[in-house]
Amino acid sequence: MSDNFDLFRTSEEHDMLRDAVRSLAEAKIAPFAAEVDEQGRFPQEARDALEANDLHAVHVPEAFGGAGADALSTVIVIEEVARVCASSSLIPAVNKLGSLPVQLSGSEELKAKYLGALARGEGMFSYCLSEPEAGSDAAGMKTRAVRDGDFWVLDGVKRWITNAGVSEFYTVMAVTDPDKRSKGISAFVVEKGDEGVSFGAPEKKLGIKGSPTREVYFDNVRIPADRMIGAEGTGFATAMRTLDHTRVTIAAQAIGIAQGALDYAKGYVKERKQFGKAIAEFQGIQFMLADMAMKLEAARQLTYAAAAKSERSDADLTFFGAAAKCYASDAAMEITTDAVQLLGGYGYTRDYPVERMMRDAKITQIYEGTNQVQRIVMARNLP
Ligand SMILES: Cc1cc2nc3c(=O)[nH]c(=O)nc-3n(C[C@H](O)[C@H](O)[C@H](O)COP(=O)(O)OP(=O)(O)OC[C@H]3O[C@@H](n4cnc5c(N)ncnc54)[C@H](O)[C@@H]3O)c2cc1C
Q: Percent of the chain having pLDDT more than 70?
């Protein structure tokens, strides 16, 4: 068997992990998915179930008390949770996004303190890069950090922060030298309880309604200097390196949502009868299902290849992370839209889960860089 082939298959352990997460997700997360969406409430049941089974942040290395799972295992956890509830899948996904800057660039002390707390379930982690006026052009951020003796003082506003208010820990990118643009940005760990931290009202969103998205305000927030992640001026590079890895997890979320929609539609067409037979017997329906499964499998293979590259930190990860996220999210949008189509009028109602899945899929084309931005990243890093 060639190394290349190995890249695209899962091991027995990965298959066992998938089975375990699928059972847990179906028993403890799926029953609340519609209610969480309808009420726009945080999926606490999912958080409890994931934390109780040590699945909330599987990427944290064993040295810091975590499960020490590889990148593909993290993908499988997120995929299986997203298959039943996209909002809940943002618990493991954003725990990785928020904490990876510490894991990649933090001091040993920062890692021990914050990765340890995350692994023990003492608090979730969020990632604060975007601002009201700095989205795709994230380096145009205005949030400032000014040195004051043994402290840094942060002032500014971050926007669209996933799980803000629920998370205890925040990786915050802030300008420490305004003359140097991206090289004048540094990263810090800020805690929810730090004086001067507050949160805006939850955004009213199209989908992922169970995952709170809020503004985070920093008003004269004084934090010890050792909360800086890595050296001064390296925060933007750390933020971008983080996204190389975590775009793979957004791809995982997309394929999970798409799998949920395909599974539901596959069952429905066998039950629904028109013209005296199950609609699954019409070739027009069979061709739609074949295309959905084909796109999904292509997206999954690209995502798993990207996960292998993330695990090894390969030089071409930047291209693969962007490609997997872009391809899988576009595929998820098409597949979930087709799932609604396969259910006809019923698909358009909240009595069936596919309309929620279609709304949830949309965000995967937008966050961690829009798919236009992914194409810019790919074009700059062509293999
Ligand atoms: C639900 C949700 C959760 C989020 N979670 C987080 C989070 O946890 N942490 C965080 O930091 N951010 C988060 N974000 C922010 C997200 O990453 C940004 O919304 C995204 O990067 C786009 O920025 P923007 O919304 O300002 O859009 P803009 O940058 O204003 O883009 C508007 C449009 O212009 C296009 N565009 C912009 N520049 C170019 C270009 N050069 N070429 C071609 N097209 C271009 C975009 O693709 C888009 O279609 C979240 C967003 C949402 C909606």
A: 98
Report the pLDDT value the prediction gives residue 9, as an integer from 0 to 100.
63
Distance from the CA of 38 to the center of ligand 1, in angstroms?
25
CATH 1.50.10.20 fits 236-380, yes or no: no
Q: How much distance in Å is there from the Cα of 371 to the middle of ligand 1?
A: 9
Atom of ligand 1 nearest to the CA of 203: 1
292-311 pLDDT, tens per residue? 999 999 999 999 999 999 99
Q: Do domains 2-119 and 236-380 have the same CATH topology?
A: no
Region of 163 please: left (phi>0), alpha (psi -120 to 50) or beta: left
Euclidean distance between CA atoms 340 and 361, whole angstroms: 12
127: tokens are: 């990632």
Q: What is the pLDDT of residue 150?
A: 98
Q: Which residues contact 12 (CB under 8 A, 6 or more apart)?
A: none
The protein residue with its alpha carbon nearest to ligand 1, atom 48, reads 370
* CATH node for 125-234: 2.40.110.10
CB of 135 closer than 6 angstroms to any ligand 1 atom: yes
Known catalytic membership, residue 368: yes
Q: Whose CA is nearest to atom 44 of ligand 1?
A: 372
Which of 79, 215, 355, 368 is labelled catalytic?
368
Q: How many CA atoms lie within 13 A of 184 on its CB side?
A: 14
Q: 2-119 sits in which CATH class?
A: mainly alpha
Q: Where are the domains of the chain?
A: 2-119, 125-234, 236-380
